[in-house]
């Protein structure tokens, strides 16, 4: 955090105050743009208030939930803030989520109603639930009517402790798992993140991430907190991405490794000149150093910020932008106002340099898992000395003498082979250091196969393993290497490990 960075906590811990404050301070500034048009802050505020009034007409009350499966459009932002300002819980689901998961997630969220993109999507959802399902394009004329009547402008009682959002996360089982996110935790997290990153009112935030994912949702939050302009992208074809960034004047852009690789590939072929991006922020998985360097080459003067976090507390650490060239193996410093501690298996605090479980305390630690007390009790535990709620991440790492955090791997990433403890993270990092390897996933050994590596590369498998042996101890070199042309990705842009494991175990090429 820079010396003059301060947490902006004027919002009083209520998420919708982000929009209301910017709506009053900069009513005529551009707030949000999608493929179909844009709204000023005054227009976004008015639409959110009108949607709030629509919810009131439907009899939805404080603490009840609405499930929303919508694309990145302006109306999604208005729906989010409109729900928040009535104390109604916003439950966003990725538009790509399939019926297999949709039915169980909707049942788990126990909402009062569901909103889909259009009549076709609504019809599919009608087959999964007996709840009322509304298509956005058919309900929105009612919202416009209420906006014309200036409905929904009256204040309503919402507490900072009220839930604002349920974020459903992917897990190792098919059972739904939602992180319960109250207003005050979300508001603190957004403010603390911005204290480090320094979004500005003149920024244009180009977001290709779905608002159903917290990485995308927090771009909505931080943009409105600072009065910046948010561009909701994703509808354009990949080949037109740089053009869209140029035309919108993008200055801030969240990325995941797969998107970063696409950007560098497009930039090599582009002849129009780099968009004026001043900062990329990375999440989901570690960004290879080679990709970082390519981004800096393709976008002169850009800062590439490394971050680490979990939905359970949103963000854990950020490498301060002014230190982006230092400690390339670190994921940065804990958020302002929070504490990261490394614990051993007995819960004892470990000194700098000693690896253990990463634990987090602070006002950003969420309220646990929705209707899952046993799961919550395992991850969220009271510090016996301070009484503060501590998140046990299940991730492993260490701190250095200056308080910088180093991520070693997730619990499922850690394993022993030939008597040596290792993680998939270090194997993947070594593979990505090999020229010609653009993506890599290491798969731990199972009862039926040895340690395996899947890479995207023009190299032969034996060449990859030979060069890997030059970088790693013998025990850490996989026995199997498979080359693929395209990596399957999750809805959030992460590598789909289960599908890659099936490829290896099934022997498919």
TrEMBL record:
<dbReference type="GO" id="GO:0005737">
    <property type="term" value="C:cytoplasm"/>
</dbReference>
<protein>
    <submittedName>
        <fullName>AMP-binding protein</fullName>
    </submittedName>
</protein>
<dbReference type="GO" id="GO:0044550">
    <property type="term" value="P:secondary metabolite biosynthetic process"/>
</dbReference>
<dbReference type="GO" id="GO:0043041">
    <property type="term" value="P:amino acid activation for nonribosomal peptide biosynthetic process"/>
</dbReference>
<dbReference type="GO" id="GO:0031177">
    <property type="term" value="F:phosphopantetheine binding"/>
</dbReference>
<feature type="domain" description="AMP-dependent synthetase/ligase">
    <location>
        <begin position="20"/>
        <end position="370"/>
    </location>
</feature>
<dbReference type="InterPro" id="IPR000873">
    <property type="entry name" value="AMP-dep_synth/lig_dom"/>
</dbReference>
<dbReference type="InterPro" id="IPR042099">
    <property type="entry name" value="ANL_N_sf"/>
</dbReference>
<dbReference type="InterPro" id="IPR045851">
    <property type="entry name" value="AMP-bd_C_sf"/>
</dbReference>
<dbReference type="Pfam" id="PF00501">
    <property type="entry name" value="AMP-binding"/>
</dbReference>
